[in-house]
Design goal:
The protein has 2 domains: about 100-225 and about 385-450, Periplasmic binding protein-like II (D-Maltodextrin-Binding Protein, domain 2, 3-Layer(aba) Sandwich); about 225-385 and about 460-500, Periplasmic binding protein-like II (D-Maltodextrin-Binding Protein, domain 2, 3-Layer(aba) Sandwich), CATH 3.40.190.10. Helices cover about 30% and strands about 15% of the residues. It has 17 helices and 13 strands. Helix 16 (about 465-480) runs antiparallel to helix 17. The chain starts with 8 loop residues before the first helix and ends with a helix.
């Protein structure tokens, strides 16, 4: 975040803090990519669906979403690390002090589990560099980084390690995963470790996302991951279409998408817009949820909210993008995430919806793009998103706990940004999304997302969110494929979702 606070963010950032028994946690796949999953390789979009649309719930995605499954019974020992420990980068480092220096007095090893980390990859480099600096300032502390993949297997391994009480001291995770770990008493509250400087620096409503139980903050906020509309300016130029105003309405968005659905100079079909739809992925939700502020999966009192005429109307106009306006590819609804990103990069998609994750990829590929807010409907502004967090695992060792808290504070600070600048080894610097602190400076292209942050709605922080998203997306896909009417789909979803909430 720049030195100055984003105007209105503290007042407008939307979050859900109630833990509802029986609802699992997952986060958008695109959110995941920004929060720590490996970037998908670019690929051209598929030309036609490989198979008919599903009529039953598809299997959970294994790449982008972060669904929660009930873990197997915890073993007495932690699983083996899935990635090699960090190795210090080539440049020599000197102790700098400040937040880098732990005052814990702890001597030993801290195990830091990082989502999406694989030793040597582009995402690992920022953490490797940060850890290297922390160890220079704290030679008595050894930090080992363990990577875990963004899928069911990865989260089961993490949960098993947490339950065993061995092998994990800090964990990088998305905000929707936190409620389950708080409910099971697997992570430490950070309230007593927050300094006055922390409280003044961390955006208050971002910190509120972590207040799951007894209003205690349960993790260090790392970054904020909103969705935006990526606009390929070169495609607009070829279609001879002027860029729309960033205050655009839904009608303006639809008309724009129609204009940039055309045959390019190569005779290739270009489509106006696309987005990834898969179980657990919420990146397209805002485009129909902004029908009305009441259209939310859960109401303020924890009841099912995706029913009624307003929810049906929102989903109908969204499905119309494919069924009526014909501005999406023929396989919209079954496209892979890599297809969509590749199609945008290759100029076959004029607009897509995604989080901060691919921004650096597109910039590196020299794509001339802009980030737009979601179009408004009835004056309602909305995007969806999540918060990336660093939590501290439960431990009886007070000195070790303090050391882990010190490392968590450092890894979410502006000082870590100074230690991991933008460069060839770390092309994005440390932050892969806008930081959760006012003192964090946001560089291009992540700064393009700053205007959409004030209108971000965070996915509900409940204990079993995955069940709901899997149920919803089966019908969601059927609707966009024209195999189910929105009203029919919503009734079917409601009948089962209400049961989840009561259980």
């Amino acid at each position: 975040m720049p030195e100055e606070t984003i105007p209105g963010l503290a007042a407008k950032f939307r979050s859900r803090r109630t833990v509802v028994a029986g609802l699992g946690t997952t986060v958008a796949g695109a959110i995941l990519a920004a929060c720590g999953g490996e970037a998908a390789p670019a690929a051209a979009p598929t030309k036609a669906p490989a198979a008919a649309a599903p009529t039953t719930a598809p299997a959970a995605a294994t790449k982008a979403p972060e669904p929660t499954k009930a873990p197997a019974p915890a073993p007495t020992t932690a699983p083996a690390a899935t990635a090699a420990p960090t190795s210090p980068p080539a440049p020599a480092r000197q102790a700098k002090g400040g937040l880098r220096k732990s005052t814990s007095g702890y001597k030993g090893t801290l195990n830091l589990w990082v989502l999406g980390y694989t030793a040597g990859n582009a995402f690992a480099n920022p953490f490797d560099n940060a850890v290297a600096q922390f160890q220079v300032d704290n030679p008595e502390i050894k930090v080992e980084v363990v990577g875990y993949p963004p899928n069911d297997e990865g989260f089961t391994k993490l949960t098993t390690a947490l339950q065993s009480g061995q092998g994990v001291d800090l964990l990088r995770l998305p905000s929707d995963r936190l409620p389950g770990y708080v409910k099971d008493d697997l992570v430490e509250a950070i309230d007593t470790y927050l300094t006055d400087a922390d409280k003044a620096d961390i955006l208050p409503n971002v910190l509120d996302v972590t207040r799951i139980k007894d209003k205690k903050a349960s993790a260090w906020p790392l970054w904020v991951v909103p969705m935006g509309i990526y606009v390929n300016k070169a495609v607009f130029a070829e279609a001879k279409v002027e860029l729309p105003p960033k205050t655009w309405t839904w009608d303006q968005f639809v008309e724009t998408a129609k204009k940039v659905t055309f045959k390019n100079a190569k005779g290739e079909q270009v489509y106006g817009w696309s987005g990834f739809i898969d179980p657990g992925v919420v990146n397209t939700w805002a485009l129909w949820m902004n029908e009305d502020p009441s259209v939310r999966p859960l109401t303020a009192d924890g009841k099912f909210g995706f029913e009624g005429a307003k929810a049906v109307a929102g989903l109908t106009r969204f499905a119309d993008l494919a069924l009526k306006h014909k501005v999406t590819p023929p396989d919209f609804g079954s496209q892979k995430d890599a297809d969509i990103k590749g199609g945008f990069q290759n100029g076959q998609l004029a607009m897509i919806v995604d989080a901060t994750g691919p921004a650096a990829q597109f910039k590196g590929a020299k794509v001339d793009f802009e980030i737009y807010p979601h179009p408004t409907m009835n004056g309602n502004k909305l995007t969806v998103g999540a918060v990336g967090l660093i939590a501290v695992a439960k431990t009886k060792d007070e000195a070790k706990r303090k050391a882990a808290m010190d490392l968590g504070r450092y890894l979410t600070s502006s000082e870590v940004q100074d230690d991991v600048p933008v460069g060839s080894n770390v092309p994005t610097g440390f932050y892969l999304a806008p930081g959760a602190r006012k003192s964090v400076k946001i560089a291009d292209p992540l700064d393009k997302f700053l205007p959409v942050l004030p209108d971000m709605w965070s996915t509900p922080l409940v204990a079993d969110w995955a069940k709901f998203t899997r149920l919803f997306h089966a019908e969601y896909q059927n609707v966009v494929f024209g195999k189910a009417k929105p009203e029919e789909a919503m009734k079917k979803i409601a009948a089962e979702a209400v049961g989840y909430l009561k259980s």
